[in-house]
Amino acid sequence: MPKSIQTRLLACMLMTSICQSGAGLARPEPQFRGDPASSRLVQDVGALIRTGDQAAYERYAQGHYAPAALRESSAAYQASLLARIFTDTAGFQDLRLVGAAAGWVQAEGRARITRLPYCLTVSRARIGDRDFITEVSARSLHPAAPDLATPAPGEVIGTLDRLARAYGRRNLFSGVILIARGDRVLFRRAYGYASPRLAMRMRLDTRLNTASIAKMFTGVAIAQLVESGRLSFDDTVGRHWPDFPNPAIRDRVTIRQLLTHTSGLGPKDYYDDPRYPAAAENLRSLADYLRLAVDTPLEGTPGTYAYSNSGYLILGAIIERVSGQDFYAYIRERIFRPAGMTDSLYAPADVQRLRTAASLTNFRELPDHSYLYELGRPIE
Fold it and tell me: What's the pLDDT band for 364 if we cut at 50, 70, 90?
């Protein structure tokens, strides 16, 4: 997965007892008195985040981040991290300094969207007579103590509903929440838009495009065929597809490696094929996709990790060859139906629009296949 789309664990450093879980903002303690420069730094960063101006974030990064930090991650990438903090919080209220040392400054405040307490950490490095930022991170604070009571279902429902509504009002959440205890459904509600462009609201029966989450169904199908003795995880592609056109993949890559993204395929994928733009609107069947996937080069050594969609298309073809069934029919009959997933399906893009939410993203793909998060309405 590209570095810039990977989820960062925005954890405040456990320096002394500052910003520790459960501290929140209500803990009675003496006011921390830091030096004016540390206080000014954290207040400046807090004020910057609150603007919600990604161009301003990038300009600030260019002038205030350490050269080494910018060599590792560009100013545009640093700005995208600040944009993620703004998306989660809309900036902070009541921000106050709670700790400082040579390499960091920490403050506590409340998110403007949810009013939840947050810890803001600004890591810094001294270069000459000036402090430069190396990283900015934020983490919500949650109580943690032996005497905490388990919340009642009504409290859980009320809290989740309040948060979903708060984010929904800012076009930051679209979906359906269902809470159940055993077989009893306690709460379900739809939020946001299935298609902002068409002003189509989310409904309880709106289908959601699960994208790569659907790879688990391919994995389950392979495991079923392994369990029945019809193939092995360590079989090569060629054992079940003797005429696969790429001999390096046919003879060296195993089913296990395709499942675990360690086949040597990737990061180049079927949609990087120069034929893809012209073919995209006519991709309907697994065979259509395979015409592009089989030409995906083996860029790495089998056994090394690189995420690959083409690898899962090859697995789909192996499922068809071993089971003697169309891939979509197999998944429908052997997985969806037994699991009671009667409203789930694989379908071409134009069919999926029937009661299916648009796929929304705030990530923009760059030429090197990395991604940058951008503020604004999601792109369909």
Answer: confident
